[in-house]
Specification:
Helices cover 29% and strands 19% of the residues. By secondary structure, it is of the alpha/beta class. The N and C termini lie far apart (36 Å).
């Protein structure tokens, strides 16, 4: 089981204690959580300081500024991984998502989700954050696979399942392989 801290107003000390008790990752670093402050570094500061804590980050430039993604990457290295926070429009019920041109919001305009694909997150990391393509791909594959304990995914080598997205230099999907099968676009 993987337990994540996120969407929490935890103080730095509370978050550090949570990591000591077994929380292993942080959901949507910087979003809907206590913020870093010079008097209390909050949940993000605790994630940075806890060597065994991982964190997901939404690299769309809206949820998190690209400069913050860069800072988080420098501090967390292989402990930072990509997540999409993608949702779909829902205009009914208690938790509605209204589709805008570049995001989803609640009816009152509050940011509620992204239009981000994982490939677009990789592209953003390469083009806007300065992360190498190889590293951005690991942030989208092998690092999150490690967090959730998938021992046969996230790498291209014998013994791993061939779940691959083949794309061109402009990040356009050309084909997808699921467990070695191929589907062209």
């Amino acid at each position: 089981m993987v337990v994540a801290a996120g969407h929490s107003n935890a103080t730095f000390n509370e978050a550090v204690q949570g990591y000591k008790w077994g929380i292993s990752t942080t959901t949507h670093l910087f979003n809907a959580m206590s913020q870093m402050h010079h008097r209390d570094p909050g949940l993000p500061g605790a994630a940075f300081q806890t060597e065994r804590a991982y964190a997901s980050i939404i690299a769309d430039g809206l949820h998190v500024n690209y400069n913050i993604v860069s800072i988080a990457k420098k501090l967390m290295k292989a402990r930072l991984f990509l997540i999409s926070d993608a949702v779909e429009q829902n205009l009914q019920g208690a938790y509605q998502h209204v589709r805008k041109a570049d995001r989803f919001t609640l009816p009152d305009g509050t940011l509620s989700g992204s239009l981000l694909t994982m490939l677009k997150a990789v592209k953003n990391c390469v083009e806007h954050v300065g992360i190498s393509l190889d590293e951005a791909l690991q942030m989208a594959s092998s690092y999150p696979a490690k967090v959730i304990g998938l021992l046969d995914k996230g790498r291209i080598e014998p013994g791993y399942k061939a779940d691959l997205v083949i794309f061109d230099k402009n990040f356009n999907v050309k084909s997808v392989c699921i467990e070695g099968g191929n589907k062209s676009f």
